[in-house]
Amino acid sequence: MPKLWNDTIEAHRQAVRDAALNTAAALVAAHGAASVTMSQIAEKAGIGRATLYKYFPHVGAILSAWHERQIDAHFARLVAIRDEPAEPEVRLERVLLAYALIHQERVQHHHDEPYGAELAALLHPDEHVARAQQHLHELFRELLADAAAAGDVRGDVDPAELATYCLHALTAAGGLPSKAAAERLVAVTLAGLRQPG
Amino acid sequence: MPKLWNDTIEAHRQAVRDAALNTAAALVAAHGAASVTMSQIAEKAGIGRATLYKYFPHVGAILSAWHERQIDAHFARLVAIRDEPAEPEVRLERVLLAYALIHQERVQHHHDEPYGAELAALLHPDEHVARAQQHLHELFRELLADAAAAGDVRGDVDPAELATYCLHALTAAGGLPSKAAAERLVAVTLAGLRQPG
């Protein structure tokens, strides 16, 4: 088959997958996992039931795939912000804020949807999550090492330990009510990273 | 009955309860929840099986009670440290360090015991945990407000938000390998709390 045809098939597969993931997550968040069936997902997504079963064996598998896609999208967002050209300190601050806002949006979403908290509880930490946490730690560690080399971050604590500090401190954004509060959290977290006077 | 006799009975009840909690938690951490029975717990704790059933209906109930006792003991430790007379900044630093070390010890314990992680996973966040989190937040908020009034902590961010920051930042101690690393984490977290220059 010519390459173009392969691309078309791949794009079609991706579109079917995406429709299944979006529909499943929205149905579970709105009605609870117990009431959502493969047939409903197929119907709402505009796919045949048999086709859906070719992609996923059950609702749980769709939700897992949705969760992986969310994690990958969040990570890609942080990488894109990191790669915008700027001074190390500015890049660090932008990534810290983006990470805080991801946490805030996520918790907000759990509150807004009737079964949002249930959906979150269904998504168990698995290997994909553990690997993503490692990549995240590595991304923060490198940013902090660059900023330390530029003299913008304290040099008396290993960048790996500072990365652990940042990743934990910023999850606090999940409990904060506004973007302004998330920005204050980033300012406080950043102040902890500065060279002691 | 005279008061002394009531005290004796109460002390006896407490001793039976404590023996059951300690034994159940140790057995589950060593052998896994699936293999631990009420009979084993009674035997190892030196209590009759029928007596144990008068206190707890099943192993899960004993583990829940054990978890509550752990949480209360941790909170009591922080309150005791808070109540030692000292300047607000010193009290704040001591409580931050104690909280970080509690997290570190807990995660360490999960790693040391063959089924320590399983035990931790069995202990679901419940109402008792949620209430304890609120009390913890209140304790930190008050310490931070005192230190802010004394000029030792930044006044540009609400003590409640700073408390949320501290509680999250310090959980990072769970991933740090040594007491020295936990102390560095406390130093970094405290630096975030200082009045910006």
Walk me through this protein's architecture:
Two copies of one chain form a homodimer. The first copy, chain A, is an all-alpha fold. The first copy, chain A, has one domain (3-193): Tetracycline Repressor, domain 2 (Orthogonal Bundle). In chain A, 77% of the residues lie in helices and 0% in strands. Chain A is built from nine helices and no strands. In chain A, helix 4 packs antiparallel against helix 5 and helix 7 crosses helix 8 (159-170). Chain A is elongated. The first copy, chain A, starts with a helix and ends with a helix. The relative contact order of chain A is 0.11. The model of chain A has no long low-confidence stretch (mean pLDDT 91). The interface between A and B is medium-sized, with 28 and 28 residues.
Q: Which stretches of chain A of 5+ consecutive residues score pLDDT under 50?
A: none
Total individual domains of chain A? 1
Helix content of chain A: over 70%
Molecular shape of chain A: elongated
Q: How far apart are the first and last residues' alpha carbons of chain A, in Å?
A: 66 Å
Could you give me the name of the CATH homologous superfamily of chain A?
Answer: Tetracycline Repressor, domain 2
- Quote the CATH topology of chain A: Tetracycline Repressor, domain 2
Average of pLDDT of chain A: 91
The topology string of helices and strands of chain A comes to HHHHHHHHH
Oligomerization state of this entry?
homodimer
Highest CATH level, the class of chain A: Mainly Alpha
Radius of gyration of chain A using CA atoms only: 20 Å
Number of helices of chain A: 9
Quick one: which chains have the greatest interface? A-B, 28 and 28 residues
Structure summary, number of beta strands of chain A: 0
Strand content of chain A: under 5%
In this structure, how is the largest beta sheet of chain A organized? Answer: none
